[in-house]
Design brief:
Largest sheet of chain A: 8 strands, mixed
Strand content of chain B: 15-25%
Number of strands of chain A: 12
Number of strands of chain B: 13
CATH class of the largest domain in chain B: Alpha Beta
CATH superfamily of the largest domain in chain B: P-loop containing nucleotide triphosphate hydrolases
Structural class of chain A: alpha/beta
Oligomer: heterodimer
Number of helices of chain A: 12
Mean pLDDT of chain A: 90
Distance between the termini of chain B: 52 Å
Strand content of chain A: 15-25%
Mean pLDDT of chain B: 90
Strand order of the largest sheet of chain B: 8-9-10-3-11-12-13
Helix content of chain A: 25-40%
Radius of gyration of chain B: 23 Å
Structural class of chain B: alpha/beta
Radius of gyration of chain A: 21 Å
Largest interface: A-B, 49 and 46 residues
Distance between the termini of chain A: 58 Å
Order of helices and strands of chain B: EHHEEHEEHEEHEHHHHHEHEHEEHHHHE
Low-confidence stretches of chain A: none
Strand order of the largest sheet of chain A: 6-7-8-3-9-10-12-11
CATH topology of the largest domain in chain B: Rossmann fold
Chain lengths: ~350, ~375
Amino acid sequence: MARATTTEFDDADGETVLEVRDVEVTFDMARGRARVLDGIDLDIKRGETLAFVGESGSGKTMLASTLMNAVFDPGVATGEVLYYPEDGEPVDILDLNQRQLNRLRWEEIAMVYQGAMNAFNPTQDIGTHFKETFDAHDVDRQDGLERARDLLRELNLEPQRILDSYQHELSGGEKQRALLALSLVFDPEVLILDEPTAALDLLMQRNILSILYDIQERYDLTLVFITHDLPVVAGFADRLAVMYAFDIVEFGEARDVLLNPDHPYTRLMLRSTLDLTMPLDEARTIEGETPDPINVPQGCPFHPRCPAADDRCEVEEPELRSEQGSDHEVACFYPDIGRERIPVTLEEDEI
Amino acid sequence: MSAETDADHVGDTDEPLLSVENLTVEFGDESALLEAVPARVKDRMGWDPSRLRAVDDVSLTVEPNDVVAVIGESGSGKTTLGKSAIGLEEPTSGQVRYRGYDIWELRRRKQIDDLRFEDARKALQIVHQDPGASLNPYRTLMSILKEPLSRWYPDMSNADRRERVLELLDECGLTPPLEYEDRYPHELSGGEKQRVALVRSMLVEPDLILADEPVSALDSSLRVEIMDLMLELQDLFDTSYIFVSHNLEHARYIANRADGRIAIMYLGEIVEIGPAEEVIRNPKHPYTKILKWATLPKHPDRAREAIAEDIPLRTLDVPDLVEPPSGCRFHTRCPQAHEVCRTDPPDLIGSNGGHSAACFREDPDHEYWESPSLDEDGDRDIMGR
């Protein structure tokens, strides 16, 4: 990829593990050019849990793929994704060649894709998946399997039974945990999870969350958590990025974003999210449709659905910015009007 | 509406719209190979093909304009119960009565008194979980939606059918309908597809719709919208719903709004049933309490407290349905199980306001209280209870 500028690495405090700078992803399609990520800037801190929340088609999975330089053809990613390993030289992931990428993926940054149900090859036992992974990364099979057994045990699974099983012989929760063990087998710094609890039963969802909570502590992992299901990350994430129309519209400490949401979209999303203790009259749906990536509205992309929008929002796009001294960022001209017109109460009635 | 026929209200009107009585549904667990083996060989070899009891002795009544949300995990039998209730799955034993008439007897005899099987078939409809898979991708919406009208109202003119479809599209928020009629399913968003699926089942003005996880596949921002639409359609057509879901929040929303009930299923049995808000606020059965515990709040502080808690189950493993546990089926996982739960199956005991649970803890004089706990460390609380 041709580069106009030389990369500057400026992780002065050593706290940043990934730095995303002006990342854009476009797809040229017959209907026109689709911009599926629109100039994303953000830092991911070492050891934190960062959650991306948004509707389907908001760009959250695309962003995760970009973090590993795994945008599929004919998509083109531009910008920089800087990776700062704990020891070693920082690199721009979007500049790496295939051989370097093969190292980076799984060993440094691992991803658990959506749909654990379909992640394993039905004609191979689980052990073979581990062995193939060791071979691809030049890891001795015996050493690798030892590590795999430890991990499986820590995830409350019987190692030998799992390794000898085919995917159809395992329950949904077992598959999800086996997949988690496979993704952690090279002790990565960053683990990206794309809807890890979707399609699981309620009790298994809770179990997977507890497991993630534990392994993060134990392995000192940075977790990047992608979901459309807000309650799943409400208590889990340190920071929360709300995505709408291929861009981040609100970003900050998770607790702060949820208790003091500034963007009208975040506020509406909270109201549309059901909760066992909320007064049901509060539940609202978000009117309108998510934008088509080829035809994103001018100005603020949320303005056609926004109760706080005015003429300015139709022509000018608000930047993600924070007030002085705050790290809670929002891309909205009129957060005050949004607050007024979209009341949100998270406090429950007594139950 | 023009297509209203007098066949809509036949049958004995004193009878409930639908009553499920002691319903049991079993599935054979036989491979094709085993099926080919003669019975005498199987006997000699001791091959006993196992039977899986998906629904076990369940009774349930649905009234007109009613909503029953049936909640359970995979394998709880909730979908099988729903399908049996609308006559899609034949009971192994027990009965399903539509306005007092046994559906399967009606099917065999084609007509009993004034009621034809066809009328019952039309009155009981289904909306599937995945609207993407339940709409034919090769056909336009108009062609998809005219189908049920041609099937059930053969005398209706083509122009009338089209008008009827457009009218309902409009009512279901697919506006302007003229812009929708020539579209193919892939030209619709997920929410729009589910609207079309609802329109399709509503066109024949059924008495009851089995909605099998109708909002689970949708984005959370659309779930309320689709459930609101279901409630609006209920107002319009007096339809009842059996709403099958694994999600307590969805169940609470639709059942509460419609003044309906929530039924909790575990391994083929209803373990608790009652008015929606009652079941959510004051769950009686330990299993219901655990489902409530597992449903995460959106308040970040509450959610963080919740995630830090250990799951209050004796084991995560779900027992095999082919050999369900003796006594109370939940005893292997229940944090409050006592010796007696291992041997005696509890009945669904009713109490005030039609809220019942199948748990000995409901009876203050039961021997349960004297029976030793199955857990060495004694009973564990669930949500402070």
